[in-house]
Amino acid sequence: MTDLIIKSEPDWAGAAQALVDGLNGQTTVDGRVTVLQRICDGLGEALYPGFVKLLAAAARFGDGPARVLVADALARALVTDRLPTVRLPAWGAAAFSGLPGMGGMGGGGLMTNARSVGPLEFLCIWLTRDVVGQPLEDEAFERAATLVLTLVAASPEAMRLYASKLADDADNPIEGLHNRQSRRLVRLMAEGMVANRAPADTVKAVLDAARADRDQGRWNFTPR
Length: 224
What we know:
By secondary structure, this protein is mostly helical. It has one domain (12-215). It has nine helices and two strands. It has a two-stranded antiparallel sheet. Helix 8 (180-194) runs antiparallel to helix 9. The longest helix is centred in the last third of the chain and has 17 residues, at 199-215. Residues 1-7 and 94-112 have low confidence and may be disordered.
């Protein structure tokens, strides 16, 4: 499992199958979190957006039991503070263009005020600012976020815990991580999850809000 390598054209269906097989081979939920972490270690510098793509593939290609297996592992990872995250620099950080392994942008810069984010909030932030060397298109956001949220929704506990995390992030912001727009998107994501809306409906509401801000010239690059 630790030998998983991201290639130029990775086999995401195969990677998702490896994830499910590894989780299924464990008898405890903590063992499954360890498998999740080891696979993420194998992603190396491509952890994000690689982890997002892996979860999306698990949702797309996995059946109901496979989705529950992954989602339950995510729930346990949230409880034990072991959810694989990426370090993003705060607004205005000197190293914003130097995230190691991010789309060939290079590394070695100072990660001033870097913050950790999980897959759903990563997508919300990426929609409002470039964090991988290329912008996130609306359609790509909608597909990826819907799949990831569908996976999380397979476990009511994962859904509850992740919604609480997102709400806490939005209501008690870490200094410099969000601008006004990304904070709004994260809050809308959490509200949709708490209301148990269909993943596609929740993601559409988030995307509609992002488009409205963009169309009305409300993109704001000041941390809030």
